[in-house]
Specification:
This protein has about 140 residues and is an alpha+beta fold. About 25% of the residues lie in helices and about 40% in strands. The chain has three helices and six strands. Strands 1, 2, 3, 4, 5 and 6 form a six-stranded antiparallel beta sheet that branches.
Length: about 140
């Protein structure tokens, strides 16, 4: 399976006082791709049925180029590694205007909300995550 790909647009309100996309907005672009990935592997749907689901444990971004308005972006996400209760999602954000703009990653933990503790990844979810391990 190819990695998850989400197209985004820079909005005027994404800009800071210097006319660049504010650095916090890069995390929103990553989030769009991460949510699409979580939906693809079925983790968000588990929350209602089992009271378990994903929780973000850590995230990072390497800012490579500033972004401006207007611009069309593409955020690609794939699974970098898988543990017993967590996995790492990697991101590449590209811009029509400037090319590769940022890379990053997030640690996502499968969490039991009733027990308030991490939980093992279900086998069906793990199998789908394995299918997203190939970096683009």
């Amino acid at each position: 399976m190819p990695p998850i790909t989400v197209d985004c647009a820079v909005r005027w309100g994404d800009l800071d006082a210097l006319g660049h996309v504010n650095n916090t907005v890069f995390f929103r672009f990553f989030e769009e791709a991460r949510i699409a990935l979580l939906d693809h592997v079925g983790l968000r749907a588990l929350r209602d049925a089992t009271r378990t689901g994903p929780i973000l444990a850590a995230t990072s971004c390497r800012f490579l180029r500033p972004l401006g308005f207007p611009d069309a972006l593409r955020c690609v996400a794939w699974v970098e590694s898988i543990g017993t209760t967590s996995f790492v999602v990697a991101y590449r954000l590209t811009s029509e205007a400037v090319g590769e703009a940022a890379t990053g990653d997030s640690v996502v933990v499968h969490y039991d909300y009733a027990a308030e503790a991490k939980a093992p990844l279900p086998d069906a979810v793990r199998a789908k995550l394995e299918g997203l391990r190939a970096a683009p």
